[in-house]
What we know:
Blueprint: E1 2-7, H1 12-16, H2 32-43, E2 47-52, H3 62-73, E3 77-81, H4 87-100, E4 105-109, H5 111-115, H6 117-121, E5 128-130, H7 135-145, E6 158-162, E7 165-168, E8 207-210, E9 213-214, E10 233-234, H8 237-249, E11 255-258, H9 267-279, E12 286-290, H10 297-305, E13 308-316, H11 320-326, H12 332-345, E14 348-355, H13 362-374, E15 379-384, H14 392-399, H15 426-441, H16 444-453, H17 457-469
Parallel strand pairs: 1-2, 1-3, 3-4, 4-5, 8-11, 11-12, 12-13, 13-14, 14-15
Antiparallel strand pairs: 5-6, 6-7, 9-10
Amino acid sequence: MKILLIDIPFGSHDIGGSRNRFSGVENKIPSLGLAYIASVAELEGHEVRVLDCNVPSSAHSGWAKIQAEGNYFRPDVVGMTITTPLVNNALKTVRIMREINPNIVSIAGGSHPTIMPEHITSFDLFNFIVLSEGEQTFVKLLQYIDGNNTELESISGIAYKKDNRLYVTKKRKMIKDLDSIPLPARHLFPPLKFYQPTPASYRKLPLAHIMTSRGCPSRCNFCDRSVFGEIYRRRSVDNIMMEIEDVVKNHNAREIRFFDDTFTLKRERLVKICSEIKKFRPKIPWTCLTKVNCVDLDMLKMMYDSGCWQVLYGLESGDDNILKTLGKKNTVKQNIQAVQWAREAGLRVRADFLVGTPSETVESLFKTLDFAKKLDIDFAHFNKFIPFPGTSFYRQLVTEGYQFDFSKSSTLDHDAIVYLPPAIPEHKYREFLDFAYKKFYLRAGYLFKRLFAIRTLTELRGNLQGAIAMKSI
């Protein structure tokens, strides 16, 4: 069959609202989820194309690209990954494809359809939903669509509507052997050089994103674990190095960003990865995401020695009481220590903060901002809290009687307030969301430090883009 996988359009206006906040520094990267789905579909012998509607260098709008690709390729099946902010654009995408081919089979996957299949099927636009981890389920579903005598009801991990009723089959077990999944089908995407990651995430371009594990055992109240679950599963070091070699030699990557939720979760595994990366030629710089309670000084020094130059910590708050309500299981003291260790090891530090959660007050907001300013960190992101479906906070707030409009739920659109903490007046919350960025980044001392920390021309250009983007806040 002919299969078209679409990375749904999500432009500057969708991301930053009417003021196009952060325009020019959006994180435009290939979808690893679609790349994995494409790889298993190709392995089954299907003709697969990927349409990335968010490549910055494209001269055409995402909607025009969908129309053109649909008319040219004439796919039998169209698939897409949907997060909550993407729902409206996903519906528009399917409508365009159905105008071209009313009989096209449409499949949705991702966090929002997994948590709220009744919502997605209510529009009568998607034939099937792939729940949670998608590779094995997608293959089975394609076999059914292709007429291979598979009973629909026997396919684990799907949802569909029949006779105006929602059917959800039994849950599929998570994939234990991640090495069994073929490498992401990056050859179906535009070259990496056409993508533009957020400037805080790289020194060199092109940048390749790699996931070496799935599943997060942490139980933070603001995080949705519906797709990859809570059971930690990992790829072998040999399999990881095979992908690094692929992205460097076949896709011209000059830097790696490991996209795992907690890259340093298993120390023995990390030691092996660092040892193998250190041997890799040419030497490859890399960064990762991790948690402050999953690092120590020796570990961070080892990472630096193997080419790591920056870590991203989810610090979330400078208030211990708020951290407790988030379910983070770390303290302000641990946050400070982890940052100090990273700096002592020679690493840059990028930090995420989450503001506006249910227990937040005006005092705790500014406590977090002051905390961020005092820390020796290079980049800070003050993310607006949204109680996304699938999170503990969402379930808690719905029980309390809250209803949410997720039609504009980008964390960077500061004008669209999905949830307002009871203790904070709306005008003060709106003001803070912009104010925090300005107060952190527009400090003379910070700007002076950033200028002298730049190591490559690529990094310099990225930082200049970031400075220009501050005008939109």
